[in-house]
Amino acid sequence: MIRCLAALCCCVLVTGCGGPEAPHSPASRGAVILGIDALDWRVLDEVIAAGRAPAFARLRDESASGVNLSFVPLEKSPLIWASIATGLEPDQHGVGGFLKDRGDGYEVLSSAADWRAPAFWDIAGAAGLSSCVIGWWVTFPAREIEGVMVADHVTFTEAGSRNPDGLVRPAALAGELAALTVTWRDVPVELLQALLPQADPAGLADVENPRLLSLRLALAGDLTYLATAKLLAARQHHDVFALYLRGLDLVCHHYWQYYDPGDGPAGSAADRALYGQVVPGYVELLDRWIGELLPLVGTDRNLVVVSDHGFHGPRVDRTGTLHKGVAEHRPEGVLIVRSPLYAPGTRIAPSFVLNVTPTVLALLGLPASQDMPGRVLRDGLTPPGAAWVQHLEAHRLATYASLAPAPPPEVADDPSLDAAVKKQLKSLGYVD
Predict the structure, then answer these.
(1) Whole-number Å distance between alpha carbons of 350 and 193
(2) Res 17 pLDDT > 50
(3) Residue 108 forms beta bridges with which residues?
(4) CB–CB of 38/329 below 8 Å?
(5) Which of 234, 313, 318, 344 could form a disulfide linkage to 256, CB 3.0–4.6 angstroms apart?
(6) How would DSSP label each residue in 281-349?
(7) What H or E segment, with its residue span, contains residue 136?
């Protein structure tokens, strides 16, 4: 099947299947995809304007960028990130919310076994391209792909990480990658000081301080995936390199009210002074991490930065009811595409989440399929880029459904860990 697909794509892209010779892609065949949960232009533009995000500022200047519109009504992150990765509606890809009914009324965590459609890394693998995928939602336990799959094994709870047997494929990497796990107790104090410059240093050093636990958990998870990404990126080149970071979403849920309370709870004046800069400070920290990672994956490679939604914080309705969870999101997320296909500095019209996979495939030199509702991003295309995209869109394959992943290997999990995840989701307002 892989050889057949590679041959078919070659026929489509090089010869047009008997038609005139196809245009050549002005971009190299490969891409880096950085998924940052809850990244919002309102905060990002503020941090860039303050000169605190040089990596993001440079990317914005070098790229086509604009709003990535999420589903309305708003959906939960696992579902959105699966749509971003497959280009398909939820009823096609099979991934729902954080939890699913086991069939007897008992809810269990969603898992990699839920995927019924191929992601862009599966399509790339079938075309002979290698991928490294790290931390993407609902990829535990990890399954075999053409390359390396690091599952979303970090739970962002005090319970820690999932069974290392499901951490990564190839499984031979499990011991080495497990050693990179940062626990919430191990978060460097200097990172906390950067985010909380008004805090008492002694309080920041106290790992038992309950008011800092959520921040420590967010940092620990992202630091783990960042260390994993750095190690794997430095070790081997992959045509596709995809990294997902969740920490900002958790930070927004816990600290947005102090940054921009809107009509929600604002907290005390003392808390606003203490925690008011955690959200923009975390975006500044993400900028630093991206600046460290990009030289390892190639500063001149095709690059996509995408978020699943923006953020506006908790809201109180006319009845005085506080709405949290998905209600704190807004549909306007971030989309940045740096590639020779697109003119630098272009501001694009709002694009939909289902356009991400067709655009990623175009960067990889591959056509989307006819059952993908989205389309390749068209705003900001250079003339050679426009010719290339027009050719790809005219030669979509019927479907990639035959590349749907096989179920991953079964891995024993810890019920107490699952309970900790459910408790956290409930505290955030994501589940009842």
Answers:
(1) 36
(2) no
(3) 100
(4) yes
(5) 313
(6) HHHHHHHHHHHHHHHHH-TTS-EEEE-S-EE---EE-TT--EE-GGGGEESEEEEEEESTTB-TTEEPP
(7) none
Q: How far apart are CA 287 and CA 310, in angstroms?
A: 17
User: Phi, psi (5° rounding) for residue 240?
Assistant: -120, 130
Distance CA 198, CA 211 (A): 14
Contact (CB, 8 A) for 336 and 305: yes
Identify the pLDDT of residue 6. Answer: 54
> Amino acid identity, residue 317?
D
Beta strand 315-316 pairing with 322-323: antiparallel
The Cα–Cα gap between 173 and 25 comes to: 35
Helix, strand, or coil (residue 210): helix
**Residue 146 contacts residue 124 (beta carbons within 8 Å):** yes
Under a CB-based contact definition with an 8 Å cutoff, are residues 96 and 90 in contact? yes
Q: What is the pLDDT of residues 360-397, one digit of tens each?
A: 999 999 999 999 999 999 999 999 999 999 999 999 99
pTM of the model: 0.95
Q: Give the residue, 3 or 305, on which the prediction is more confident.
A: 305
pLDDT of 424 over the 90 cut: yes
pLDDT, one tens digit per residue, over 257-305 is 999 988 788 888 999 999 999 999 999 999 999 999 999 998 889 999 9
What is d(CA 332, CA 334) in angstroms, rounded to the nearest whole number? 7
Phi, psi of 49 (to 5 degrees): -60, -30
| DSSP per-residue string spanning 333-385 | EEEEEESTTB-TTEEPPPEEGGGHHHHHHHHTT---BTT-------TTB-HHH
Cβ contact 250:217 at 8 Å: yes
Determine how many CB atoms are found less than 10 A away from the CB of residue 207: 14
Residue keyed to tokens 């094994």: 153
Q: How confident is the model at residue 2 (pLDDT cuts 50, 70, 90)?
A: very low
Euclidean distance between CA atoms 393 and 33, whole angstroms:
21
> CA–CA separation, 6 vs 124, rounded Å?
9
The pLDDT assigned to 14 comes to: 43
Distance CA 273, CA 259 (A): 9
In single-letter form, the type of residue at position 356 comes to V
Fold category of 2-428 in CATH: Alkaline Phosphatase, subunit A (3.40.720)
Is 400 in contact with 369 (CB distance < 8 Å)?
Answer: yes
Q: Which residue has the tokens 């075999």?
A: 144
Question: Which DSSP letter does residue 73 get?
Answer: S
- Which one-letter amino acid corresponds to residue 188? P
144-172 per-position pLDDT tens digit: 999 999 999 999 999 999 999 999 999 99
Sign of CA dihedral 135, 138, 140, 142: negative
